[in-house]
C-alpha cells in the first residue's frame, strides 16, 4: 500500500474516504510565484501515483487557475475526492489592476466578488464544475465567511444542503482560519466536514478547545490545513524571516518555534515532521492538507508522513507549550 493511503479514513457522511495527507492546490494557482503548466500537472500526477486521493482547490486560488489546472491534470479520474469552495464569485475585471493583489502571480483579468447568496453559490458551483471539467463535486466549503455569518447561514448553507440532497455534491462544510465561527456552524447547521487552517498545529492548538470537541459530538470530519502556520514550522530551524499566519513572526512566536525545533532534534526528528503528524493524532481530524507545487514538494511531504515521530515527543512538546 502507498505511503499516502496507509490509513484510509472516512470523510464526512457521504461515503467518501481520504488518505491522511492531501493535496492543497492553492500553490498550483500561482500562490506567491508562478508555476509552469507542466510542473503543476506533474505535481498532481506524482501525488496520484503516490496514493494521494484528496485534492482541495477554490475559485479564489489564482482567479480560477488552480481549478483549471487541477481539472486538466485529473482528467476523468473518478477515484479521487475533490473539494472546492463558494463565497467568492469571479466576474470580469475592471481593467484598472494589472496584477492580482491577493498573493497570486496571475493577471487580474477577472475579480473576486463576495457572494454567499443562494444564487451566488449556484453560479459559483456551476462555474467550478466547468473549470474542473467534472459533473459532480465531492465536497464544497463555504470559504472565509468571517464577515458574512448571516449571509452564509441564510444563503450558502441552505443552498449546499439542497445540492447535497440532489446529489450534485456529496458533502459540504466551511473552511476558515478561525475555530470560533466554525464551531457555531458545526452546532447550527447540518454540515459534515470542516477545513480549519492554522488553528490546530504544533504552535496553535486552539481548535482543541472548541471546534474539535463539537466535531466529535456532531460526527463532523475535520481537514487540518495550514499546519506550518504559513511557513514558520516548515523549516527544521525557523529563520529570522519566518512568517506566521502570513505575517512576519513576532519575536515571541519565533522564540517558541525555535524551542520546539530544538526539542524535536532532541528526539531525533524535525519541526516539519512533528507539524504534519500533530493534527492526525486527534480522532476528529481525518486528513492534513499541505500545499504542493512540484513533484519534489509532493515527495518531501510524503516523506514527512512515512514514519511518525517518537511517541514521547508529544508529552515533551505539551510540557513546553
Automatic annotation (TrEMBL):
Domain NADP-dependent oxidoreductase, first and last residues per copy: 20-319
GO terms under cellular component: cytosol
InterPro entries given in the database record: AKR, FDH-like, NAD(P)_OxRdtase_dom_sf, NADP_OxRdtase_dom
CDD domains xref list: AKR_FDH (cd19162)
GO molecular function, one term: oxidoreductase activity
Database matches in SUPFAM superfamilies: NAD(P)-linked oxidoreductase
Record's protein name: D-threo-aldose 1-dehydrogenase
